[in-house]
Amino acid sequence: MELLIENLTKKYNQHVAVNDLSFQLKSGNCIALLGANGAGKTTTLRMLAGLLTPTAGVIKFEGYQNGIDIRSKIGYLPQHPVFHGWMTGNEFLVYVGRLANLTKLEAQQRADVLLEQVGISDAKNIRISKYSGGMRQRLGIAQTLIHKPSLIMLDEPVSALDPIGRREVLTLLEELKQDTTILFSTHILNDAEEISDGLLLMHEGALVEQGSLTDLREKYQSQKIELSFKTVTEDMLEQLNQLPGIDQVNAERGGFVCLINDVNQAREAILTKALAMEWDLTNFTVSRATLEDMFMEVVNK
Fold first, then answer.
1. Half-sphere exposure of residue 6, counting CA atoms within 13 Å on the CB side?
2. Chain centroid to CA 3: how far?
């Protein structure tokens, strides 16, 4: 399902939660909606899911006229899903299937398929109250798929999970994106970089950047040099910032991260300065800037 958003805005009295958002989501893509807590991600997803009415703007779904209820084509998982703990996983999926107007037989058939697909078929007859966090998220994702939607939207699907549960859900999303259009929000940049095809970067309710990972990496391509020292003094940051080939230096525990524009020039300048000043250099690593580096550059403009 192709989705077109034009000038989407949501206001609460004088507070603008989402400000003039415009973007396009093409069928078959997995897109990450990025932003810090409070950036407007949840409000955006709730408007797209039909749970909130926009103050202004247009939400267009390919093949559907404005005003038509398209919720039957959408699967939505909130950040904090609520389950009936006394139900088993199988009972819950059949229940939501029936709510989606499936017959009892259709709901059971879909539940069988999805429990296997999300990897919890062995626990289908166990009460949900006994499920781990990762198992609950897998069940939540299964319920978004029960009615075979064209688009699923997931709000912070891994933010509350431990490392094992997080890995389980990310692996599942990697598999699901082969067949389903996915839009998911997150403030964990590594997750977005790992499984998404494109990014939408929100900051204070506004969309500040968007595009494919390849295009954004090329646009913001930079390298960095990570430095560690036995002893860090107050004047080192200032001296590093004055060296040729370096755009910016950020202090980190035990050292610095230098964003550079000329790796050869910066390498020679840093090593020469370290030798002249007798700095106790313990680590010198050249690497590509991360998605986090790009995000910080965008929001600080």
1. 5
2. 18
| Lookup: tokens for 175 | 């598999």
pTM: 0.79
Q: Is the dihedral of CA 292, 298, 299, 300 positive or negative?
A: positive
C-alpha span between 265 and 137 (Å, rounded): 49
Q: What is the pLDDT of residues 12-25, one digit of tens each?
A: 998 999 999 999 99
- Kindly report, residue by residue over 152-164, the tens digit of the pLDDT: 999 999 887 888 8
**Predicted pLDDT of residue 2:** 81
Q: Which are the contacts of 223, defined by CB distance < 8 A and separation ≥ 6?
A: 259, 260, 263, 286, 287, 288, 289
Tokens of residue 233, six digits: 């003094």
CA-based nearest residue to 208, from 9, 16, 23, 17 = 23
Phi, psi of 196 (to 5 degrees): -90, 155
The structure tokens listed for 207 are 């969309």
Cα dihedral 31, 194, 217, 178 sign: negative
Answer whether 92's CB lies under 8 Å from 139's CB. yes
Spatial contact of 205 and 240, defined as CB atoms under 8 Å apart: no
